[in-house]
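User: Hi! I have a protein structure encoded as tokens and I'd like to know what sequence might fold into it. I'm fairly new to this, so please keep things simple.
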């Protein structure tokens, strides 16, 4: 924080400067002035958080200075130091919302306590002011506030925002992709959770931009799902400051080196609110179409939108690579295709989206021909996150492709090295016959199309999947009827038939005996003497 001391008595200024432990009170810079003309200049050119001022001065009173401060929508706390216990002065200071009215001579312990109260007020006020600024930008960007000078100025007044319709703002969009694939093809984030990511980015941003930030500047989580962040800074000119672009570069390098993840920065055109929304939409369009950059700062003022048609990827070649299990060649072709679009300035949101659809469709058809349902193989949070982010950049798309190709390859290899599909299905039924098993189970467990799996099962075993389940259950029921005294309805439940009547009918259809008849026969056989 910074403090400004204003008094025409140089001895008082020197005494206040040296007599208080400003550093311990939390103040970094101490500005001094001996009249309100110089004081206004300092306030205009610097960030001043607290003002200590005399009231009665030759070139203008402290009350005039406070009135000017409030007219400029500045809510900084002001502490008056005066030799006069004048009711008019006190009344006027109160009307202008001064923080405290302190009579000289100065008692430093009491003044220190007042300044501590002022810093507490500043902290609370800045937090609330920051929230108000953030709420404004959220509402404004959603076009919930009429974009007219009168409506905006009224909003600023009602919400006590330090903005004017003539202020110039520059938006900066940040796109981060904190994900990576582990050795076992799991998607992980560099951050423990979304909150820690938000806190890290906002703290790092404030630390790097500290020299140019004002309390009214904001850093927002713009789109949680897409990992987009937005900073909006109030600037003095429609020209991009070199310090702004330098800080963006520092921000990118810091995040990249500390967290090992890519961060791109898109700097918009500084403009007044009358044209801000139009320029911001252009910035968003630029962000969604600049897809071949890693850890770079890009400027809307230099952006050239891609034009013309773009060639589709050769899905016939992709099909051939898949059929021949040339998965690395498949990925290489995808990389070369995307790079060719980038080189010819044809890589943008539409071409990237079409490419993802073509690749997914090709892979889905390949898997379907093998009886594998892709929507069962590709599921879960990891897949959906990678698929959603794939269109953000070439690197994100290639991460998505590596994930689905590796998943495909692992599933095919596991299938090839394991017993036949029919044998695997048999083993599963043998272990789970008492459960609710249907043809849909083949889809959920083996990622196989139910028709394909059923035909394959019957071809290898000579019996349909449905009849094999019946056969296995009846055999289990026969064993229980022969070796236990369990009630028939309990046996029915144990082998997977909750409906006792249905079980009885089915058992008789298969064995030509009811369960009771079968038990009686088995008991009779076991009781009969053996013949030698």
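Assistant: Happy to help. Inverse folding works backwards from shape to sequence: for each of the 532 positions I chose a residue that suits the local structure. Here it is:
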């Amino acid at each position: 924080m910074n403090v400004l001391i204003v008094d025409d008595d140089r001895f008082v200024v020197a005494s206040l400067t040296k007599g208080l432990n400003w550093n311990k009170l939390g103040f970094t810079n101490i500005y001094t002035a001996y009249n309100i003309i110089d004081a206004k200049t300092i306030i205009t050119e610097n960030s001043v958080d607290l003002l200590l001022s005399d009231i009665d001065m030759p070139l203008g009173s402290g009350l005039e200075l406070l009135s000017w401060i409030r007219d400029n929508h500045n809510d900084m706390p002001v502490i008056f130091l005066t030799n006069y216990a004048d009711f008019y002065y006190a009344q006027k200071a109160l009307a202008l919302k001064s923080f405290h009215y302190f009579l000289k001579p100065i008692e430093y312990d009491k003044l220190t306590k007042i300044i501590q109260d002022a810093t507490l007020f500043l902290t609370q006020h800045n937090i609330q002011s920051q929230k108000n600024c953030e709420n404004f930008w959220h509402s404004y960007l959603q076009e919930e506030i009429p974009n007219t000078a009168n409506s905006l100025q009224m909003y600023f007044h009602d919400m006590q925002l330090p903005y004017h319709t003539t202020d110039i703002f520059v938006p900066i969009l940040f796109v981060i992709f904190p994900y990576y694939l582990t050795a076992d093809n799991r998607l992980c984030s560099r951050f423990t959770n979304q909150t820690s990511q938000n806190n890290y980015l906002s703290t790092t941003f404030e630390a790097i931009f500290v020299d140019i930030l004002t309390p009214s500047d904001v850093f927002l989580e713009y789109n949680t799902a897409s990992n987009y962040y937005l900073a909006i800074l109030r600037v003095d000119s429609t020209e991009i400051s070199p310090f702004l672009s330098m800080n963006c570069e520092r921000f990118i390098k810091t995040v990249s080196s500390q967290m090992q993840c890519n961060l791109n920065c898109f700097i918009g055109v500084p403009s007044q609110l009358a044209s801000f929304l139009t320029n911001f939409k252009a910035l968003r369009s630029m962000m969604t179409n600049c897809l071949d950059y890693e850890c770079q700062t890009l400027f809307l003022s230099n952006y050239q939108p891609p034009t013309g048609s773009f060639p589709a990827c050769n899905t016939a070649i992709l099909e051939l690579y898949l059929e021949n299990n040339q998965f690395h060649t498949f990925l290489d072709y995808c990389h070369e295709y995307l790079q060719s679009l980038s080189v010819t300035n044809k890589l943008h949101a539409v071409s990237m989206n079409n490419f993802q659809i073509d690749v997914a469709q090709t892979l889905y058809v390949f898997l379907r021909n093998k009886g594998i349902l892709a929507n069962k193989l590709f599921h879960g949070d990891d897949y959906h996150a990678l698929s959603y982010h794939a269109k953000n950049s070439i690197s994100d798309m290639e991460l998505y492709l590596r994930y689905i190709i590796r998943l495909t390859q692992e599933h095919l290899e596991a299938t090839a090295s394991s017993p036949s599909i029919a044998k695997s299905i048999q083993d599963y039924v043998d272990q789970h016959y008492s459960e609710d098993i249907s043809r849909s189970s083949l889809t959920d467990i083996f990622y196989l199309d139910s028709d394909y799996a059923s035909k394959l099962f019957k071809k290898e075993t000579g019996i349909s999947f449905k009849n094999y389940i019946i056969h296995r259950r009846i055999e289990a029921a026969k064993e229980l009827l022969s070796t236990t005294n369990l009630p028939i309805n309990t046996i029915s439940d144990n082998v997977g038939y909750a409906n006792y009547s249905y079980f009885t009918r089915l058992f008789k259809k298969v064995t030509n005996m009811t369960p009771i008849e079968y038990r009686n026969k088995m008991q009779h056989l076991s009781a009969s003497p053996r013949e030698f």
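A useful reference point when you look it over: The two ends are 109 Å apart (CA to CA). Feel free to ask if any position seems puzzling.
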